[in-house]
Amino acid sequence: MTKSSLLTDLLAQFKPDPHERPVVALRVEVDQNDAEQPVHWHRKGQLVLALHGSVTCDVPNAIWMVPPQHAVWIPGGTPHSNRVTENAHIYFLFIEPGATPLPNECCTLAISPLVRELIRHLAQTPAYPSESPTERLASVLLEQLPLSPVQRLHFPVPEHPGIRRLADALEQNPADRTTVAEWAAKLAMSERSLARLVQRETGLTFGRWRQQLHLIVALSELAGGATVQQVAGTLGYDSVTAFITMFKKALGLPPAQYFTALR
User: Where is the HTH araC/xylS-type domain (predicted)?
Assistant: First the structure.
């Protein structure tokens, strides 16, 4: 177990790529303050599992969210950084390329209790010997991981300079309610052209794209201990009811029931 308020310490203490085993795990606890691991990459793929608190993973062209009892899969060779909420309890799982058929792109996975416990067990002995009981459990883990349901909890951030400017503004102020028409004027284009550009670059309408960011922020804040009232205010909703309606429509359950189901 590594316990630190600075995730950068992990890079000095734990080097995943030299490990010969097809999968190794590391348990991480963050004490009192939010922590961030700067941009880096591994030859091995990385699964980031959150059991308490949440993790936000920045990868090229997207921000991925890891709510409790979920994991983000980051294929090997992908530059990424991790931001962890206060008092988070997370696991890093490093997987040798080709060891199990996981997607070739980033995604969020819903983690079953069996997979969760296998990861927790594996983290107790990162340097497990060959032909040991732990190695056999690691093989079961590699068989079970591809069965995890994919949930696309991410906010696309394209390279297009105009959309990037818009995304940066929304990230800095998620409560910003600037309309498509107002943004179009700022970017010196027509409202119709901007709407088409957002759809082409992100695969989402402007409203759905902004809602994805709201979901990412909401999940992170709620997992970190914020109240529904506080999150609704942070996101600029006129009422708590309006925020709960958006959350339920997107994720199927209101916030309290959603997190109860995760636990």
Answer: 164-261
